[in-house]
Each structure stands twice: as C-alpha cells, then as structure tokens.
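SAMPLE LOG
Freezer: B-3
Tube label: C17
Construct: single chain, 184 aa
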Amino acid sequence: MSDQGASLGKRPTGKVAPGGAPLDRVRAAQELTAFLEVALREMNLLIEFEITSPGGRDGAPDEAEVLVAFGGADQALLLERNAELLLALEHIAHRWLRLDPRMHDRVRFDCGGYRAARLEELRLSARVAAQRVRETGQPFRFNPMSARERRLIHLELTGPTGVRTASEGTGDRRQVVVYPATKP
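STRUCTURE (predicted):
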C-alpha cells in the first residue's frame, strides 16, 4: 500500500483525458489504486479490489475501459440501498481522477456482478418497452433514473427500432419516455 502523501504528490493538476481523447488506462489504474487504498483503509472496510481493462472504444458504447471489481467480507455494505456506497465511491473516484464528465462511462465500479446485471436489466427493459410501444402505439414512461441509466436506454433504442426516446422531467425526477417513431 502507498501512503496518502505519496499518492497525492504524484497526482497531476489537469483532468484525465477530455471527452473525445483516449483514456490513459495505466495512469487511471495507478491513480485508482492510490485512491482506493486510502478510501477503503479510512472507511475500515474489508474489501479487496481488482482493476482491469475489459473493453474499450471498439466495443459497445456503454462498455467501460477501466473496471474496478470489488469483493470481500464487507461487499454487502457496498450493495446496500441499490448500491449507494458503490456508486458514491465511483463518483468520488471520478473526481479523484479529475475526469471530464464525458469520460465517466469509461471508468466503472462493480461488486458481485451488481452493475453488470443492472445494465443487462436496463437493456432488456428497453427492448420490452419498445416492443410494447410498437404493439400498442402508446408511449411508455420509465421510472426516474440516473443520467447514465437514461443514456443506456437511449443507446439501446437508437436505430431502426420503430420507436424514439426522450428524457423528460427535471433533476432526480428525470425519466425516459419511449414513443412510437414518427412516420417520415
């Protein structure tokens, strides 16, 4: 483990890769290791982590370039209340890395397969909603969700699906609505 002072001394002053630039995966992994060693130690969590680079810009548009997988005796704490602590750690890590907000999807945290399962659940829900809208001609409104989850729904239904999507509402009440595609 590195100590907090050493890791802070090595941190650059600029952001990690603006939105369109490639992510420096090696540097991101080093910075994430430094952050997580400090954070997990200070929170007294019995959690291990592994940082991998499973995907990239060649894969699906929602595929992470850097994945941090957690496990250990306290992993249930990360997943309580719809993985609130896991998502909070991810948010703080994005800030630690000084990631441009357009880069947030490139660094993802998961624990026990929770996030992967949630992403697949959203994809399936999007396809089912699209089918329902095509059959009934009536719009379908999803429950409010995060910007990242809304984006995934929009991406899943982009293309020749016979439907169109829009985000409506404000703040934490923002939701995706699936409409029948308009005839050209």
